């Protein structure tokens, strides 16, 4: 029995139809967008960003495990942590790859931790390779009036 769902294809068709339709909402959108930008800028000014040592330590451990994963599976890896310790990412790239039942458990655990722990994940195909970028927010954002976001 074959079960197939083409949600991506449907979404692309809807996006194209939306982009091709005349946009009568532009005038309203411009003023709404200006208001929204102003509100976001105000909220951003009220936030204080504090690096979280627990998140930084976990990310460093995950970086080391990912380097070992890439070595074992013969994948490319780029990993970056900003100097201000507020953001980091781990990017893996590879061609066709199989993770089999007899693959090292450490590899499976590291991949599972990347998927479970990342704040954002982007998967794309570039130059014939699958590229997966796992992004991590390493700081906490606190509103000046002490309300935690």
Estimated helix fraction: 40-55%
Strand content: 25-35%
Low-confidence stretches: none
Number of strands: 6
Biggest β-sheet: count, sense, barrel? 4 strands, antiparallel
Structure in words:
- With 149 residues, the chain is α+β, with helices and mostly antiparallel strands.
- It has a domain at 50-142.
- The protein is built from four helices and six strands.
- It has helices spanning 7-20, 26-45, 53-73, 105-117, and strands at residues 47-51, 76-81, 87-94, 120-126, 129-137, 139-143.
- It has a four-stranded antiparallel β-sheet with strand order 2-3-5-4, with helices on one face. Strands 1-6 form a two-stranded antiparallel ribbon.
- Helix 3 packs across helix 4 (105-117).
- The termini are far apart.
Task: Describe the structure concisely for a colleague.
The chain is an alpha+beta fold and 149 residues long. It has helices at residues 7-20, 26-45, 53-73, 105-117; strands spanning 47-51, 76-81, 87-94, 120-126, 129-137, 139-143.
Secondary structure blueprint with pairings:
Blueprint: H1 7-20, H2 26-45, E1 47-51, H3 53-73, E2 76-81, E3 87-94, H4 105-117, E4 120-126, E5 129-137, E6 139-143
Antiparallel strand pairs: 1-6, 2-3, 3-5, 4-5
Helix pairs in contact: 3-4
